[in-house]
Design a protein that fits this description.
This protein is mainly alpha-helical and 167 residues long. The protein has a single domain, classed as Ferritin (Up-down Bundle). 70% of the residues lie in helices and 4% in strands. The protein has helices spanning 3-12, 17-38, 44-68, 87-92, 105-129, 134-162; strands at 14-16, 80-82. The chain has a two-stranded antiparallel ribbon with strand order 1-2. Helix 2 packs antiparallel against helix 3 and helix 5 (105-129) packs antiparallel against helix 6. The radius of gyration is 18 Å and the shape is elongated. It starts with a helix and ends in a 5-residue tail after the last helix.
């Protein structure tokens, strides 16, 4: 491999924090819209949960939107960092499944757990690779939030699927 080709390969592996924030904002908006549309179609026993998920995704979207408006991070968003190993898995979550008109509780919970897991891993990796500052702090916060969400969803999944009970 020539030096020029190697340099191009390294550049392909880089992305700016601005691009990362744009993808993350889209990720949160797509989740919010997905859960909002799902609310009237899910069973009553998990409807409250889907409403909470939609609200949490809206809150995350608001965090990203607020950060994008801050003038004090203009230089930081130009910084390029290495793409994370979880980048494609995270991006894949933007493509939403068709759960039909009457989605099964188990399918909804499995999707939500998978999405939280992808976000948890991605935000955690970004927190490790992003330079110190408000964007890194946001990724640390979101990784923690997504971890809590995933653990809560796992508890609910166990109750609904394995015990067959209400939540």
């Amino acid at each position: 491999m020539t030096e020029g080709t190697h340099g191009v390969d390294r550049l392909r592996g880089k992305t700016s924090l601005k691009e990362i924030l744009e993808v993350a904002t889209h990720f949160e908006a797509s989740a919010r819209d997905f859960y909002t549309a799902l609310i009237p179609r899910v069973s009553k026993r998990i409807r409250y949960l889907v409403e909470e998920l939609a609200a949490e995704e809206q809150a995350h979207y608001d965090l990203f939107a607020g950060l994008a408006q801050r003038g004090d991070i203009a230089e930081q968003v130009k910084v390029e960092i290495q793409r994370t190993a979880s980048d494609s898995q995270f991006s894949d979550c933007i493509h939403l499944p068709d759960l039909g008109d009457n989605p099964d509780d188990q399918a909804v919970l499995q999707y939500a757990m998978g999405r939280e897991h992808a976000a948890m891993g991605h935000y955690g990796e970004l927190a490790e690779t992003t330079p110190a500052g408000p964007i890194r702090d946001l990724f640390i916060y979101l990784a923690s939030e997504e971890t809590k969400h995933k653990l809560e969803l796992e508890k609910i999944y166990y109750e609904v699927v394995h015990r067959g009970g209400g939540v």
